[in-house]
Design goal:
The chain is of the alpha/beta class. Helix content is 49%, strand content 19%. It is built from 18 helices and 16 strands. Strands 13-12-9-16-14-15 form a 6-stranded mixed beta sheet, sandwiched between helices.
C-alpha cells in the first residue's frame, strides 16, 4: 500500500499509517479485556461496546489522513452495533451506510476516487442484495469495494497518470477481505500492485501537490459546539482537513488532521477550541526527496551563544526549561528526528522526559548528555544529516565526550571544595564540574584554569566570554595560550551568557 501513493507527503505511508491505527484499536481491545479478566464480571457480550472501544483506540492512535478516516468508519459501525447482540447481514449493511455518512462528514472537502468512494460502494453493495445472511452481505460489500477501487483512477486523474489505485481505498478493501475470511473461512484473492514505482510516481506528480508546507495532526479535548468553528478556521488555513471524534465523555476527544503553510495559526485555533495535545508537525516539502528531516534543540542563554547555535541550524531554548518547553521546541522544529543537547546536568532529566513524550507521539528523539555549551558546539561541528540518525547521534556524543569543559564563576556562599575552602564572592575555576582553581582576579583564575586543562593534552581550545567579561580578557588569554601552549589552536566567542564569566572547551 505504501507503494501505491502518488503524493510525496507523509500521507504517502498509507499502509504504515493504517497498520499503526489498527494496532492502536487492537491494543484498546486487549487493554479492556485484561481489565475485565481482573474483575468479577465478564466482558460485555454485545458487539457495540467492543466496536466503540475499537473505534476510540483507532481515533487516539490514528496516523495520517487515511488512519483518521478509517477510525471514523469504525465509529460509524459502532453506532449501528450499539444495541446488537449478534451481527447479521442487515446490521452489517446498515453499519456500512452509517460508516459512509460518518466518513464523508469528517472530511471538510470530500474527494471522489479515494477511500470515501470505496466505503460508499461497499455500503451500496451490501444493501443492494437485501439479505440477512452475514456471509453474503460481507462478500457483496467486499466485491463492490474492489470494483470501486478499480474505478478510482477514472475519478482522480493523478492516479490514472501514475497507473495506480487509491492507497486508502486499497486498505479498506483489505479490511473487508479480512472480514469475509473471518465469517466464511474462505481466503480472498488479492492482487492490486502499482504499475509504476513510487519514485517514478513522485517524479510525475510533484506538480500535483497542494504546496502546503506542513502536516499537522493532534488530539483535542473540546466541546462539540466549538468544533464547527474550528473546522471553518482550519478549512480557511489549508486542505486535507479531517476532524473526527468519538463523542464519548463530558468533553469529547477529537483527532484533527490538516495540511497548512503555517503552523502557528493552527495551534492558536486549537487552543481557542479546547485542549490540544500529542501535536505532530511534519514538513511536507522535505519528504519529496525521501530525506529524513532532522533538527537539534539546544539549551543555552546569552545573545552570542544563541546566535552561535542558530548559525549551526539549532533551535535554542533558554536555560532551565520545563519539560513542556522542551517538548514544544521539539514539535516546533517540524523534524522527523531530533537530537537534544541539554548543556547542564540538571537539565538532562528534563530533556530525557521530553524525549520520552516525543517518542510516544511518533518522533525519533535522542539526548546527547552535554554538560556545557562548549560540548554542544563540539557535537554540532560533527553533525552529518547524510548518515543514519543513530550513527549521527553516536558521532555527536563521542565529540561531546571528547571535549573537556571548564567554567569560571563567582562563589555564591562559603564552602569546602576539593581545591580548598572558598568564600562567597571569590572566583572559582571548574574543570568537568569540579573546583580546581580559587582566586580573586578573573584573568589570573582563567589563565590557571586553562593551564590545568591543557596539562592533560589537547589541540583545540574554545573560549566563550560571559556577559560581564571585561575588555582585554580575550587578548590577554590569547597571548597567554600562544606563549605557553604554542601549538594550540584557539577560537574565542562573545557568548553573553550570565553567571559564567568564561566557558572553556579543550578537544
Amino acid at each position: 500500500m505504501d507503494d501505491l501513493n502518488v503524493y510525496p507527503v507523509p500521507d504517502g505511508d498509507t499502509g504504515t499509517n493504517l497498520v499503526l491505527t489498527l494496532a492502536a484499536a487492537q491494543e484498546a481491545i486487549e487493554n479492556e479485556k485484561n481489565e475485565s479478566d481482573e474483575g468479577d464480571e465478564g466482558d460485555e457480550k454485545t458487539a457495540g461496546p467492543l466496536m466503540r472501544r475499537m473505534a476510540r483506540g483507532a481515533l487516539l492512535g490514528a496516523r495520517g489522513n487515511s488512519g483518521v478516516i478509517v477510525s471514523q468508519i469504525l465509529r460509524g459501525m459502532a453506532d449501528t452495533f450499539a444495541s446488537a447482540v449478534a451481527v447479521r447481514g442487515g446490521e452489517l449493511a446498515r453499519a456500512l451506510r452509517t460508516a459512509t455518512d460518518a466518513a464523508y462528514a469528517a472530511v471538510a472537502r470530500p474527494v471522489e476516487g479515494t477511500v470515501l468512494s470505496v466505503v460508499a460502494a461497499a455500503a451500496e453493495g451490501a444493501g443492494r442484495i437485501k439479505s440477512d445472511n452475514l456471509v453474503a452481505v460481507a462478500r457483496a460489500a467486499a466485491r463492490a469495494a474492489t470494483e470501486a477501487l478499480a474505478r478510482t483512477p477514472q475519478q482522480l486523474p493523478v492516479l490514472a497518470r501514475a497507473g495506480v489505485v487509491d492507497a486508502g481505498g486499497r486498505g479498506l478493501c483489505l479490511l473487508l477481505d479480512a472480514l469475509v475470511e473471518v465469517v466464511s473461512g474462505d481466503r480472498a484473492e488479492r492482487d492490486s500492485k502499482p504499475i509504476l514505482s513510487t519514485r517514478e510516481a513522485h517524479r510525475i506528480h510533484d506538480d500535483d501537490c497542494s504546496g502546503h508546507g506542513y502536516e499537522v495532526q493532534f488530539l483535542l479535548d473540546a466541546d462539540t459546539a466549538t468544533i464547527d468553528r474550528l473546522r471553518a478556521s482550519l478549512d480557511r488555513l489549508g486542505d486535507s482537513l479531517v476532524i473526527v471524534g468519538t463523542g464519548d465523555g463530558d468533553t469529547p476527544t477529537w483527532n484533527v488532521h490538516v495540511h497548512v503553510t503555517e503552523i502557528g495559526p493552527v495551534v492558536e485555533a486549537a487552543v481557542e477550541a479546547g485542549r490540544p495535545y500529542r501535536i505532530r508537525v511534519t514538513p511536507l516539502e522535505e519528504r519529496r526527496s525521501g530525506a529524513d528531516v532532522r533538527a537539534a534543540v539546544v539549551v543555552a542563554s546569552g545573545d552570542g551563544l544563541t546566535a552561535l547555535f542558530e548559525a549551526e541550524g539549532a533551535t535554542v531554548v533558554d536555560r532551565n526549561p520545563s519539560t513542556a518547553e522542551m517538548l514544544a521546541a521539539i514539535h516546533a522544529s517540524g523534524a522527523d528526528s531530533v537530537v537534544l543537547l541539554p548543556n547542564d546536568a540538571n537539565t538532562h532529566a528534563v530533556a530525557s522526559a521530553a524525549a520520552r513524550e516525543a517518542v510516544a507521539a511518533g518522533k525519533s528523539v535522542s539526548v546527547v548528555p552535554t554538560r556545557s555549551p562548549v560540548q554542544a558546539l563540539a557535537a554540532l561541528a560533527v553533525r552529518d544529516t547524510q548518515r543514519p540518525f543513530a550513527d549521527d547521534v553516536i558521532a555527536m556524543a563521542e565529540a561531546a565526550g571528547a571535549c573537556r569543559y571548564g567554567e569560571v564563576c563567582t562563589a555564591q556562599r562559603d564552602a569546602l571544595t576539593v581545591a580548598g575552602p572558598c568564600r562567597a564572592g571569590e572566583l572559582l575555576g571548574l574543570v568537568d564540574g569540579e573546583v580546581h582553581v580559587i582566586g580573586a582576579d578573573l584573568t589570573d583564575v582563567s589563565r590557571r584554569l586553562l593551564d590545568r586543562m591543557l596539562g592533560g593534552g589537547g589541540e583545540l581550545v574554545t573560549l566563550v566570554l560571559g556577559a560581564d567579561a571585561p575588555d582585554g580578557l580575550e587578548a590577554d588569554l590569547r597571548g597567554h595560550v600562544h606563549r605557553t601552549w604554542p601549538f594550540i589552536e584557539l577560537e574565542c566567542y562573545a557568548g553573553g551568557q550570565p553567571r559564567y564569566h568564561l566557558l572553556a572547551g579543550v578537544e
